[in-house]
Design brief:
It is built from 15 helices and 23 strands. The protein is of the alpha/beta class and about 475 residues long. The protein folds into two domains: about 270 residues, Aldehyde Dehydrogenase, Chain A, domain 1 (3-Layer(aba) Sandwich); about 180 residues, Aldehyde Dehydrogenase, Chain A, domain 2, CATH 3.40.309. The N and C termini lie far apart (about 65 Å). The relative contact order is 0.13.
C-alpha cells in the first residue's frame, strides 16, 4: 500500500513492532487543497492497537534500562534524519493538511528536529539534588512509566506529535502513536526515520485509523500507562472516561477562546499587525486570540486599520509562497466553520469582512471573517470555531478588560498589548490562561511550561514538566546506618 505524494513515497500501512502491518480496511487521505485523494492508508482497530501496545510493552522491558546517554543518541540521530528530510516532510504535510509550505519549510519541520534534540539534551541534565532528612539521604529518580499512547490533531500533526513522542522516548517510555485521520502521512515518514535511526523494534509504533476505532481501542487498553491527547473538549471527555477504569494519568491540550487585549497606550501598528496574525493557518490554531478586546478610545481607529490590513491577506494554494492562508482541513470542518458563521448572521450580526466561502477559489477556502460586538452569550463569542473567524469588542478600563478576558470557560492563552510594563504585569497576573504573551505572539521555547486551564486542558508540558508526566517519580531514603563493611 504505497502512494506517491508530491514525489515522496508513502507506505500507508501501520508501523508495529518494527515492521509494516496492513489492515483489512483502509481509508483515503484527502488533500484540502483540492479535495482530491492522495494516498491509501490502513485503518486500524482493536486488533492492530492490541498488537502495537503488546509490541511496545515488550520493547519497554529493554528500552527502560537503556542508559540516558544511549536514548539521547537515538533521539539526536532521529533529529539528524528529520533535518535531512525537511523538504520531503514539508511538501507532504502541506499536501496532506493544507498549511503553508513556507511555514513548514522554515519553522514547523525544523521544530520537529528541535523537539528530539531538546528532550535528548534535557534528559542528560535532568537531575534533582539529594537532600538530607535527619541524617538520612533522600534521592529522587525519574522512572519510565511504561507504554504511552499519544493522539494528536491535524493542524500541525508532525510537530505536535513529536512534541509528545520525543519526551516520552527520552523518558524511557515506549510509544503507540495514533495520528489524525485527516492528516496521517508524515507519521508514516516518521516511522521510516526511526527505523533508519536504528530505534529498537517496538519502541515506536504507529496505528492509523478513525478515532472511534483505533483511538477508542488505544485509550481503553489496559497496558497503556500514559495518555497524551490534543484536540476537542468532547473527545477529551470520552478519552477520560475510557481511561478511568485503568487509572491512567492524562495530559490534555484542548480548545481555546483566547483574548487579545489592546490598550490605548500600546504600539498601535504592532497591535494591528499582531491581531491580523490571529488568522494564521486559516484560523486553525488553538492558541489564536480570537476575541479581540480594544480600549474604547482607540476602537474606531483600530477597527479601520485592521480592516484595511485584512484586505491584503492573500488566500490560495498553500504550496505557493505568495499566499498567507490556505484552506480548511476537510469538508466536515469547513461546514462546521460555515455553520458558526451562518448562525451568527442569522442572529443579526453582520460580518465586517468575510462571512462566507471564498467563491473565487471554491473548495474549502473560507474568507477571513470579523464580527463586531456580539452579544455576551453569543455562540460565536463563546465557542471555539477553529477557523478564520474573529470577534471585535471594546472595553472602558483595565478592570473591564480583565473581566471580559476571563468571561470564558477556556483558559489556554492570552495576548496583552500595552506600553505600560506595570500594567502588563498586573493584567498577566489576573488573566486566567496557561500562557500570556505581552506585546508579542507565538514566542515559544521548549523550556516553558505549556498547558491550559479550565476546558483548555489538564497538566503542563515542556522541560522537566514533560518528564514529570511520562515518568513515575521515585523518592528513595537511605539511612546512615546498617551498611555492612
Amino acid at each position: 500500500m504505497r502512494s506517491l505524494v508530491e514525489g515522496v513515497e508513502i507506505d500507508g500501512r501501520h508501523w508495529i513492532g518494527g515492521a509494516r502491518v496492513g489492515s483489512a480496511e483502509s481509508f483515503k487521505s484527502i488533500s484540502p487543497i483540492d479535495e482530491q485523494p492522495i494516498a491509501d492508508v490502513s485503518a486500524g482497530g482493536e486488533a492492530e492497537v492490541d498488537a502495537a501496545v503488546n509490541a511496545a510493552h515488550k520493547a519497554f522491558q529493554t528500552w527502560r534500562r537503556t542508559s540516558p546517554a544511549e536514548r539521547a543518541a537515538y533521539l539526536h540521530k532521529i533529529a539528524d534524519l528529520v533535518e535531512a528530510r525537511v523538504e520531503q516532510l514539508a511538501v507532504v504535510e502541506t499536501r496532506d493538511n493544507g498549511s503553508l509550505l513556507r511555514s513548514h519549510r522554515r519553522g514547523v519541520m525544523p521544530r520537529v528536529a528541535m523537539n528530539f534534540r531538546f528532550f535528548a539534551d534535557w534528559l542528560l541534565q535532568l537531575d534533582h539534588p539529594d537532600f538530607d532528612v535527619r541524617g538520612h539521604r533522600n534521592h529522587i529518580s525519574y522512572d519510565p512509566s511504561g507504554v504511552a499512547g499519544i493522539i494528536t490533531p491535524w493542524n500541525a500533526p508532525l510537530m505536535l506529535g513529536t512534541w509528545r513522542i520525543a519526551p516520552a522516548l527520552a523518558a524511557g517510555c515506549t510509544v503507540v502513536y495514533k495520528p489524525p485521520e485527516w492528516a496521517p502521512l508524515t507519521a508514516s515518514l516518521l516511522a521510516d526515520i526511526t527505523a533508519e535511526a536504528g530505534l529498537p523494534a517496538g519502541v515506536f509504533n504507529v496505528v492509523q485509523g478513525l478515532g472511534r476505532n483505533a483511538g477508542a481501542a488505544l485509550t481503553r487498553h489496559p497496558k497503556i500507562r500514559r495518555l497524551s491527547f490534543t484536540g476537542s473538549v468532547p473527545t477529551a471527555r470520552t478519552i477520560a472516561a475510557a481511561a478511568a477504569p485503568n487509572l491512567v494519568p492524562l495530559s490534555f491540550e484542548l480548545g481555546g477562546k483566547s483574548p487579545f487585549i489592546v490598550f490605548a497606550d500600546s504600539d498601535f501598528d504592532l497591535a494591528v499587525s499582531t491581531a491580523i496574525g490571529q488568522y494564521d493557518n486559516a484560523g486553525q490554531v488553538c492558541l489564536a486570540g480570537s476575541r479581540i478586546l480594544v480600549e474604547e478610545s482607540i476602537r474606531a481607529k483600530f477597527q479601520e486599520a485592521f480592516l484595511e490590513k485584512a484586505k491584503n491577506i492573500k488566500q490560495g494554494d498553500p504550496r505557493d509562497e505568495i499566499f498567507d492562508i490556505g484552506p480548511q482541513i476537510s469538508r466536515p470542518h469547513f461546514e462546521r466553520v460555515a455553520g458558526f458563521v451562518e448562525r451568527a448572521k442569522a442572529s443579526g450580526l453582520k460580518p465586517l469582512i468575510g462571512g462566507g466561502p471564498n467563491t473565487d477559489l471554491g473548495g474549502l477556502y473560507f474568507r477571513p471573517t470579523l464580527f463586531a460586538d456580539p452579544a455576551h452569550d453569543a455562540e460565536i463569542l463563546r465557542e471555539e470555531v477553529f477557523g478564520p473567524v474573529l470577534c471585535l469588542q471594546s472595553f472602558k478600563d483595565e478592570a473591564q478588560a480583565i473581566a471580559m478576558a476571563n468571561d470564558t470557560e477556556y483558559g489556554l492563552a492570552a495576548v496583552v498589548m500595552t506600553g505600560d510594563e506595570k500594567r502588563a504585569e498586573r493584567v498577566t497576573r489576573e488573566v486566567n490562561a496557561g500562557l500570556v504573551w505581552n506585546n508579542c505572539f507565538f514566542v515559544r521555547d521548549l523550556r516553558q511550561a505549556f498547558g491550559g486551564n479550565g476546558k483548555s486542558g489538564i497538566g503542563r508540558e515542556g522541560g522537566t514538566w514533560s518528564f514529570d508526566f511520562y515518568c513515575d517519580v521515585k523518592n528513595a531514603v537511605f539511612a546512615p546506618h546498617g551498611w555492612r563493611k
